[in-house]
Design brief:
This protein is an alpha+beta fold. The chain has one domain. The protein has six helices and eight strands; from the N terminus they run ββββαβααβαβααβ. The radius of gyration is 18 Å and the shape is globular. It starts with 5 loop residues before the first strand and ends with a strand.
């Protein structure tokens, strides 16, 4: 059996109703855009406790309580078990609820196993215990992101107005509608380039997002 290029490190539910406002460079043009943030989880991680109710929805903050790590799994706040996260959220399903994506988050196997990922220095993500532990044929690839070991996204900042126009033009030609790379090969190509060009952020890690289902949830 061939080794997997990427491993599922956990599952989450993305708030697809919330979009960030950005000013982007698209080549030589400055444009205003709304971008879905595929890392805005429906789960409340305990951030901004003073923001409650509808205000949390409007700001893209999590609106459903996240259970303790012992329930969620090794790579908390990502869930280890797909059936468990779906079971937990069943009570929140509602036809009039907000649109959400249930997603699998992957990490390139070479990045997960890399020598630089000393667990004492970079403890997350750990070796996953995901179930299922392989990408399923019915799932849909959303795209691949590049992030630092501190979980800082690296694609969107490269599109900000102060970025070099030629660099932005090249990058935007390669990205899909979600501002992600459409293939793991293309993400690795930019990873290698950015590791050299921006050593202070190296090594860049290649994360994948796979859509499992679209559904609607709302708090009870």
């Amino acid at each position: 059996m061939c080794p997997m290029e990427e491993k599922i490190i956990g599952y989450d539910v993305c708030e697809m109703w919330f979009k960030h406002k950005y000013n982007f460079r698209m080549g030589s043009k400055l444009v205003k855009a709304l971008s879905s943030n595929l890392y805005e989880s429906i789960f409340d991680h305990g951030d901004y406790p003073s923001v409650v109710g509808k205000d949390r929805e409007e700001k893209g903050f999590g609106v459903i309580e996240l259970p303790p790590m012992v329930r969620v799994g090794t790579n908390y706040p990502l869930w280890s078990d797909l059936a468990d996260i779906q079971s937990y959220l069943r009570a929140y399903r509602c036809a009039e609820g907000k649109p959400c994506w249930v997603v699998a988050i992957t990490l390139r196997t070479e990045d997960l196993d890399g020598e630089s990922r000393d667990k004492d220095d970079y403890p997350w993500p750990y070796e996953p215990e995901s179930n299922p532990d392989r990408i399923q044929s019915e799932w849909t690839l959303v795209g691949y992101d590049l992030m630092t070991e501190w979980s800082e996204g690296m694609i969107v900042p490269k599109l900000f107005p102060e970025a070099e126009a030629d660099d932005v033009a090249e990058l935007t030609r390669e990205l899909n509608e979600y501002l992600l790379f459409p293939s793991i090969e293309k993400a690795v190509e930019f990873k290698i380039r950015w590791d050299t060009a921006f050593p202070e952020f190296a090594p860049h890690l290649v994360y994948g997002i796979w859509r499992i289902e679209e559904t609607r949830y709302r708090p009870r």
